[in-house]
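Subject: Sanity check before I submit

Could someone independently write out the structure tokens for this chain? I want to compare against mine line by line before I put it in a report. The sequence has 129 residues.
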Amino acid sequence: MPGSRSPFAYAVLRLVPRIERGERLNVGVVLFSRQHGGFLGLRTQLDEQRLAVIAPGVSIDDVRAGLRALELIAAGDPAGGPLAALDPSERFGWIVAPSSTMIQPGEVHTGLCDDPQAQLDALFQKLVA
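---
Independent answer below. Compare away.
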């Protein structure tokens, strides 16, 4: 319901190109709010220059494809495969589940907001852009 402060949960998506080095780049934010009509949003951005510095052998195209797949799943787009057909809370749970891939979710945090899209945009600006 726009205009009412309701709970939301979010996580930062991190690119971990070489686990042994412990380096990571924030590459996205995913936010879910059941009370705001099951809102699920995900924004990503890849800093290619930083990636080239910390992991010169990593394929930028592969990373972009991984981020795009997560965007399609979050959006419920059929091009995202069977996971995109799940309901928004299940898609969020899948996106924030611990992963051993290069793109990993951080801890899930919670808060209150009256506009989940505006909150997603603000978190993205603060934590990724």
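---
OP: Matches mine. For the report I'm noting this point. Strands lie at 6-15, 25-33, 39-44, 103-105, 109-113.
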